[in-house]
Amino acid sequence: MKKSMMVGLIIFIALGLATGYYFLSYAPHQAAVTKFEDVVKDLNEKNKEVEDQIAEAEKVIENNEEPLDSKTLEELKSTIKDSKDSLRKIPDIEKQTEQIEKQIEELSQPLDYSETKKNLSDKQTHYQNSILQLKQITNPSSSFIEERLKEIESITGVQSVTEDNDPNKKLNKQGGYTASVYFVDNQVTESVEGSDIVQKGNDVGGNIEVYKTKEDAEKRNTYISAFDGTALNPGSHYVYGTVLIRTSHHLTGTQQKELTEKIYNKLIELK
């Protein structure tokens, strides 16, 4: 009888210990592990949204396309790095329940990636737009040049040269321009001789010369520079992309600068 009671007591104590272990140790630990996994799953989903944007931006960079403004590429690269650094890191799960609960608390802190995603999107757009802008001033067509010049208020007439009326005989020739568009600007008040805009030439307003390469445009610009300050004053002349923008010597320095800027801004304007 005593032996049976002793066995029963031992079993009772064992069951009590097992029950205590389960409810006081095992169950809380498993609950913490499950909670940790849920928190990590949610965090991974949030991180993935940013990671996908980063991957897209990196793919754009890998195309190795040149932007008009090189700063847009550097800013995008910098933003990608900052975005990666902003991701909340997920640690390996601890062994002790108390430490796991501490990890859960840290990982569950409020997290908002909206500013990171917006900044990344904006910088990528700026870079891609800059690529498009450079393309617009890289060997554009004469019709494109005419269209944009007509949008400038002070320009009252445009005319593209042909191989028959080209005064420089350089259209479509090796090293020559692929398009040349003369224009009239109403800020020029001097009388300029000629039966049409091409014959009146650069003096009546200005001229846009388009080349296949930037090197060809720079070479032409260097040639024109030789006449600066001489009786054959060529007016102002600046290269952007493969485009040479010229303005009349009859304009003041300020007028030349402002007109050049207006033309340049119109040529790179995205629509």
**How much of the residues is beta strand, in percent?**
5-15%
Number of domains: 2
* Share in helix: 55-70%
In round numbers, the mean pLDDT is: 91
Structural class: alpha+beta
Shape: rod-shaped
Main β sheet profile = 5 strands, antiparallel
Q: What is the H-and-E element order?
A: HHHHHEEHEHEEH
Oligomer: single chain
**How large is the radius of gyration?**
36 Å
Q: How widely separated are the two ends?
A: 99 Å
How many helices in DSSP terms? 8
Summarize the structure.
This protein is α+β, with helices and mostly antiparallel strands. It has helices at residues 2-62, 70-86, 97-107, 114-136, 142-149, 197-200, 214-225, 253-268; strands at residues 155-160, 179-185, 205-210, 236-240, 243-247.
Chain-wise SSE layout:
Layout: H1 2-62, H2 70-86, H3 97-107, H4 114-136, H5 142-149, E1 155-160, E2 179-185, H6 197-200, E3 205-210, H7 214-225, E4 236-240, E5 243-247, H8 253-268
Antiparallel strand pairs: 1-2, 2-3, 3-5, 4-5
Helix pairs in contact: 1-2, 1-3, 1-4, 2-4
Structure report:
Helix 1 packs parallel to helix 3. Helix content is 56%, strand content 11%. The radius of gyration is 36 Å and the shape is rod-shaped. It folds into 2 domains: 135 residues, no CATH class; 127 residues, no CATH class. With 271 residues, it is α+β, with helices and mostly antiparallel strands. The protein is built from 8 helices and 5 strands. The longest helix has 61 residues.
